[in-house]
Amino acid sequence: MRGLCVDLGTGSTWVCSLPGGATVCEPSVVTVDTEDGIIIDAGSISKEAIGKTPESLMAIKPLSGGVIADYSAAEGMVKMLVKKALNRTVLTGVTALVTTPSNATQMERRAAAETVKNLGVSTAYTIPGSMAAALGAGVNVLTPTGNMVVDIGAGTADSAVIALGTIATGNCIKEAGDSMDAAIVSYVKRKYNVIIGENTAEKMKIELGCALPKAKNELKKYKGRDISTGLPREIALYSEEIRLVVADIIKKIIDSVIITLEKTPPELLSDVMEAGIILTGGCSNLYGIEELFTQKTGFKTKVAESPSGCTIRGAQKVISDKKLKKLLKITD
Ligand SMILES: Nc1ncnc2c1ncn2[C@@H]1O[C@H](COP(=O)(O)OP(=O)(O)OP(=O)(O)O)[C@@H](O)[C@H]1O
Ligand SMILES: [Mg+2]
């Protein structure tokens, strides 16, 4: 094994080894024993445990808004996921690459790189998520032609116009899938007097959420707790309700993309106009999002193939290609 790539995402973390090694993708959640602080699980079981843990355990999300919020939880999570993928935790002599938001500070980049350093890797690099996402979406980032990628994840919406291996203009905001979930929790509380957990809100977003009205206004039932009685209660929600709740956040994302376009030099802008905007990240699965982008920006927009996996695919490309290696930043 020569390389290790980690896409440290707010919602999910991908780990893969190179060449051609195992890949795991798990929710970025850990379960911690509250008494001794030891991490006992990382991934999907911990995510299911959110809102259900007894007093002796705590489900923690180590990342918020794309950056590490709890360093020891992040480090423990990466170690557990590496063990799951590779069945070992000592990676002597391996080159590692960790993704960060495009506007991460040097300290934030260093913290991301540190999560792999205790595995014994020889060098730890970082790469801006939007650059990796562009590569994973099939963009040739080294040419002088400008391409625009918008990666809409759980914690960030990261837009960038890329040419000659650099981010010419970009904008990264902390409004994405997690803010949509939080807005759904508040809406359900206000409208139905019912409390739901963040996992239920995410389920509502994935099942009913849309950027444009669906042909059929779907109705689905969910369970929560009635605030007045304290008892469980079933509520039914329409996809149109969820569309209106997430619309504000999608608007903020599109506004941030327009700001990036406004900052872009005219020559690159005409390239983007020709090629169109590419959407990556889990939230680009939202029904109608590319159509709404086209309407609001005036640029044709398409969703990349398997949009959630673009960043890790791009990271894999960089680490295995000599010409692309110059895109990496050594983080010491
Ligand atoms: N089918 C879907 N419809 C709507 N949203 C979805 C869908 N699938 C996943 N998502 C949302 O996508 C987000 C996760 O996307 P992704 O895995 O790209 O984020 P991340 O890389 O973990 O976060 P970030 O890059 O912001 O740190 C979550 O908010 C999730 O609920
Ligand atoms: Mg991401």
What does this structure look like?
The chain is an alpha+beta fold and 332 residues long. Helix content is 37%, strand content 28%. The longest helix has 25 residues, at 239-263. The relative contact order is 0.15. The model has no long low-confidence stretch (mean pLDDT 95). The site of adenosine-5'-triphosphate has 23 residues, from helix 5 and helix 6. The site of magnesium ion has 6 residues, from loops.
Concise structural overview:
By secondary structure, the chain is an alpha+beta fold. 37% of the residues lie in helices and 28% in strands.
Show the helix and strand layout.
Blueprint: E1 3-8, E2 12-18, E3 23-27, E4 30-33, E5 39-42, H1 44-48, E6 57-60, E7 63-64, E8 67-68, H2 71-86, E9 95-100, H3 106-117, E10 123-128, H4 129-136, E11 147-152, E12 157-163, E13 166-173, H5 177-192, E14 194-195, H6 198-208, E15 219-226, E16 232-238, H7 239-263, H8 266-275, E17 277-280, H9 289-297, E18 301-303, H10 310-320, E19 329-330
Parallel strand pairs: 1-9, 9-10, 11-17, 17-18
Antiparallel strand pairs: 1-2, 2-3, 4-5, 4-6, 7-8, 10-19, 11-12, 12-13, 14-15, 15-16
Helix pairs in contact: 2-3, 4-10, 5-6, 5-7, 6-7
The protein binds adenosine-5'-triphosphate and magnesium ion.
Adenosine-5'-triphosphate is lined by residues 9-12, 66, 129, 153-156, 176-178, 202, 205-206, 209, 281-283, 285-286, 308.
